[in-house]
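Me: I'm a chemist; would you kindly supply a protein sequence with its structure tokens?

Assistant:
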Amino acid sequence: MRIGELAGTTGVSRRLLRYYEGQGLLHPTRMANGYREYTDADVTAVRHIRALLTAGLPTTTIARLLHCVHDEDGRMVPSSCPTMIAKLRQEHSRVTEAITRLRTSQQALDAILTAALVGPVPAEPAPPR
């Protein structure tokens, strides 16, 4: 199948499919005329890439782990690759740290917003002399 058909089948734009290829995630064969030729395995690979991106993994990590997943009854199942667990734990820690930083930012913004909505506190009148 050509890139347009793969895009239609997966719901992923042609531009993004070319990006995946550039990142080493897809490896279509090239026909004599230079057109990319994709297979059903590429449809599965795109589905796996999308699932791993949704999990927050960067494409550099996906490139190292994509061979560690396969389909079973239409769902992605991780295999027991030696580096997969360690890499997933590392990415989990990275996402957890990002969430912590975002929560801290949210709390700071909440405090600033609350102060802005309340407005300045009126000063106490000076006691009479």
